[in-house]
Amino acid sequence: MRRIPIAFFALLAIPILALAGPNYNLNWYVVDGGGDNAVASASFKLGMSAAQPVAGEVSSASYRMKMGFWYGAHTCHCLHQGDVTGDGLIDVFDVIGVIGIAFSGEPDPQDPACPKTRGDVDNNGVTDVFDVIYLIATAFSGGSNPINPCGA
């Protein structure tokens, strides 16, 4: 019978110990809530919905965890407010586009996950002369960026 030195087993154990890393402890709790609710503190945010007790996102400065099959279903994304031409810039062509929307009834593009149209840069529910003025200030004189309907 062949003998295997103890040092061989010690060498095998080193990678396993290295993988152990910091001592993290995940406690498993279920936070049930109703409707489409969100609770937050300075360090964490928790989203929840009725009939699905574990859904949403929990985060801190270092970690973020997404969970549940409803996660992201009600997410608001309005990344193109004011960019009615869709070229990634707010410029004279967008101002011309908003003028056409406000005064000529041209179609106002809307992103699928955004509750407002791209031309409604002041977020009041209507694309009008005030949106034209707002967008001129944004494009040419360093005015504020269009108001994000998602609140971010």
Which CATH top level class of the largest domain fits? Answer: Mainly Alpha
Mean pLDDT equals 75
Shape: elongated
CATH architecture label name of the largest domain: Orthogonal Bundle
Overall structural class, as computed from helix and strand content, comes to: alpha+beta
Annotated CATH topology of the largest domain: Type 1 dockerin domain
Strand content: 5-15%
Give structural attributes.
two-stranded antiparallel sheet, two-stranded antiparallel ribbon, 3 helices, single chain, 4 strands, 2 domains, 152 residues, Type 1 dockerin domain
Walkthrough of the structure:
The protein is α+β, with helices and mostly antiparallel strands and 152 residues long. The protein folds into two domains: 30-75, no CATH class; 76-152, Dockerin domain (Type 1 dockerin domain). Helices cover 26% and strands 12% of the residues. The protein is built from three helices and four strands; from the N terminus they run αββββαα. It has helices at 6-20, 92-104, 129-140; strands spanning 36-40, 45-49, 56-59, 64-67. A hairpin with a 4-residue loop joins β3 (56-59) and β4. The longest helix has 15 residues, at 6-20. The protein starts with 5 loop residues before the first helix and ends in a 12-residue tail after the last helix.
